[in-house]
Amino acid sequence: MIEVDVTRPSPPYEQIRAQFAELIKCGVPAVGTRLPPVRQLAADLGLAVGTVARAYKELEQAGYVTGKRGGGTPGD
């Protein structure tokens, strides 16, 4: 679903943020669906946890998702 190309000029967190934002705009995942846990997505993509956490934080700040500590991050 989410892919990161480290050879692209945009940083990995921005690639993650942009891809999730586009998916959310298209209705995938459905409203209320939790995004993958930060640690899991980081492991799946071979990235640092902080990179994925930053992407999720930016999605939350932009109003795409709502976060709840320990409860996952459901898409709005």
What's the rounded overall pLDDT mean?
Answer: 91
| Share in β-strands | under 5%
Low-confidence stretches: none
Rg (C-alpha, Å): 11 Å
Shape: globular
Largest sheet: none
Q: How many individual helices? A: 3
Helix content: 40-55%
Find the structural class using helix and strand composition: mainly alpha
- How many beta-strand elements? 0
**Alpha carbon gap, first and last residue:** 18 Å
Q: H/E element string?
A: HHH
What does this structure look like?
By secondary structure, the chain is mainly alpha-helical. The protein contains 3 helices and no strands. It is globular and about 30 Å long. The model has no long low-confidence stretch (mean pLDDT 91).
Question: What's the quick description here?
Answer:
Helix content is 46%, strand content 0%. It has 76 residues and is mostly helical.
Fold topology:
Layout lengths: L11 H14 L12 H8 L3 H13 L15
Q: Which features would summarize this protein structure in a list?
A:
3 helices; mainly alpha; single chain; about 80 residues; about 45% helix
